């Protein structure tokens, strides 16, 4: 192709990264984002005037190399765009019985404390970390960095034998329970799997590679939070001469037979495109942007989505020395608590993830304040869409504040609140078009991950591609970035710039 205009719908991490790869490859890229700012679920949210913005949802920088890699891939120095802080403390885990344990990057430094606290062998823990980190590397080469568009691509003896060793059909809970007897350690190692709101007995053991990668690679914190990272990507996009349109919701992808030729904005403007990439939610893309009936797309009707979240963000006038950057509050019987959320029941107990960037990053401590996010998993909107009345929201808020005060061993947090902001599943649905308000897209059940997860190429519109959370290889910032690179590679091989198709 002599010149090729690519339109990207949605400026989440998937859309931005796809755009950057394609701009670097020489394509002309226009990105349309419905919100006033890009970033999707990792954009920042304002606090009171004069105080630091909040990170909106995502905050844990798993696979730190990925955040730098996108800049290196497109020939930029990441140091010119953002700075990172490596966390010595990975997670502080609080248990319902009042005990707590801090996992650190340097595992040797907590060997004896670990054995005393969990009554497990540290060498078994290390073996688990090494084995599952190796699994991650294999999964990365075999699955995460590849499109799975042609199943025959997997059918080489080398790949098949690697896949058998990987054993993705074993569940996360089975893999962890087989190795450790301590309920507290099991719960910690499974918490990322639990947090999808899906039974861990039905989630692949590949999810157990997340704590292994965290221990092996550490966690990164971007100075200024994920919001600062989005700004870095946006700046790179503009530096690379991408065209960015915010406040620009797209209503329709116009197709002629099996080819997309244009997009239609909600203000009625048509924009011609040689290739269209949708970073909007997959279900939304099919049913709204392409205006196709879900009934015609069998997997769409049977899709099971992850749970959603209730988020309370606070700007406080006190500092909280008992918290680290990433804190997890685990209750007894985590398995049933989260399975209940996955099947539509509001939690009676409240396991929480508390993000306290003020611990490590003084850009969150403006005018002597501190910043904190509390996240609670809740059912998605497929169960009870009318649940989120003002009364429910107030109830959730009060429970979060009470739990936080208990954890901090103070009477009440209310006197210290300078500003607060909340999000419910409805916000995810209305603001970002997330189907059923699901926080993490398609549920990562073994069946859905192996067979039903949509691939990046649209099967019925030749020049339409998908990128984002529900698309292969799946959800999580670093994983979505990997998927975006795959889409760019697919486009470059199908529509090389010097070859007219
Ligand atoms: C609560 C929560 C916590 C998380 N925590 C972590 C974490 O700690 N670490 C981690 O690695 N990952 C985390 N994740 C996952 C990670 O944030 C996501 O997988 C990733 O950011 C999704 O990026 P995306 O580009 O696929 O989608 P999105 O961020 O949803 O972006 C899609 C974009 O498309 C736009 N859009 C939709 N429809 C239209 C339209 N019609 N026209 C124009 N634009 C449109 C939306 O406004 C949005 O900006 C979390 C996610 C959530 C929700």
UniProtKB/TrEMBL annotation:
One Pfam family from the record: Amino_oxidase
Domain of life assignment: Bacteria
Sample GO molecular function, one term: oxidoreductase activity
Pathway it works in: Carotenoid biosynthesis
Annotated GO biological process: carotenoid biosynthetic process
UniProt keyword terms in alphabetical order: Carotenoid biosynthesis, Oxidoreductase
Domain Amine oxidase intervals: 13-281
NCBIfam families for this protein: crtI_fam (TIGR02734)
Family (UniProt): Belongs to the carotenoid/retinoid oxidoreductase family. CrtN subfamily.
Name recorded for this polypeptide: Phytoene desaturase
């Amino acid at each position: 192709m002599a010149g090729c205009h690519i339109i990207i719908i949605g400026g989440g991490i998937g859309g931005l990264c796809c755009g950057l790869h394609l701009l670097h490859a020489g394509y002309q890229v226009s990105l349309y984002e419905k919100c006033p700012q890009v970033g999707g679920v990792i954009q920042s949210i304002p606090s009171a005037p004069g105080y630091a913005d909040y990170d909106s949802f995502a905050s844990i920088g798993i696979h730190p190399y990925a955040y730098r890699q996108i800049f290196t891939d497109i020939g930029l120095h990441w140091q010119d765009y953002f700075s990172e802080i490596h966390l010595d403390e990975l997670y502080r885990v609080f248990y319902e019985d009042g005990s707590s344990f801090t996992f650190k990057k340097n595992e040797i430094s907590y060997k004896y404390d670990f054995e005393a606290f969990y009554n497990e062998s540290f060498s078994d823990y290390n073996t688990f970390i090494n084995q599952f980190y190796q699994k991650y590397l294999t999964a990365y080469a075999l699955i995460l960095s590849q499109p799975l568009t042609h199943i025959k691509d997997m059918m080489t003896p080398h790949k098949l034998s690697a896949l058998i060793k990987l054993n993705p059909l074993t569940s996360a809970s089975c893999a962890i329970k087989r190795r450790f007897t301590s309920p507290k350690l099991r719960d910690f190692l499974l918490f990322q799997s639990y947090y999808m709101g899906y039974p861990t007995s039905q989630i692949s053991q590949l999810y157990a590679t997340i704590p292994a990668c965290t221990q092996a690679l550490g966690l990164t914190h971007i100075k200024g939070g994920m919001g600062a990272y989005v700004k870095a990507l946006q700046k790179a996009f503009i530096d690379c001469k991408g065209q960015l349109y915010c406040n620009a919701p797209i209503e329709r992808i116009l197709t002629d037979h099996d080819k997309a030729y244009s997009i239609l904005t909600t203000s009625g403007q048509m924009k011609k495109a040689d290739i269209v990439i949708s970073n909007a939610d997959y279900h939304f893309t099919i049913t709204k942007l392409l205006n196709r009936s879900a009934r015609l797309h069998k997997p769409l009707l049977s899709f099971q989505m992850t749970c959603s979240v209730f988020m309370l963000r606070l700007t406080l006038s006190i500092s909280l020395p008992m918290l680290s950057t990433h804190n997890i509050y685990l209750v007894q019987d985590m398995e049933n608590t989260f399975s209940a959320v996955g099947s539509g029941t509001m939690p009676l107990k409240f396991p929480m993830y508390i993000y306290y960037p003020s611990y490590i990053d003084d850009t969150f401590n403006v005018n002597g304040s501190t910043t904190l996010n509390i996240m609670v998993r809740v059912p998605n909107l497929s169960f009870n869409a009318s649940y989120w009345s003002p009364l429910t929201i107030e109830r959730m808020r009060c429970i979060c504040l009470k739990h936080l005060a208990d954890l901090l061993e103070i009477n009440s947090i209310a006197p210290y609140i300078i500003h607060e902001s909340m999000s419910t599943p409805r916000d995810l649905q209305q603001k970002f078009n997330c189907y059923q308000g699901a926080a993490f897209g398609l549920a990562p059940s073994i069946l859905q991950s192996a067979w039903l997860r949509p691939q990046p190429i649209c099967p019925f519109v030749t020049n339409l591609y998908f990128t984002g959370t529900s698309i292969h290889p799946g959800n999580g910032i670093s994983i979505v970035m990997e998927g975006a690179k795959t889409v760019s590679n697919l486009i470059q091989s199908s529509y090389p710039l010097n070859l007219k198709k």
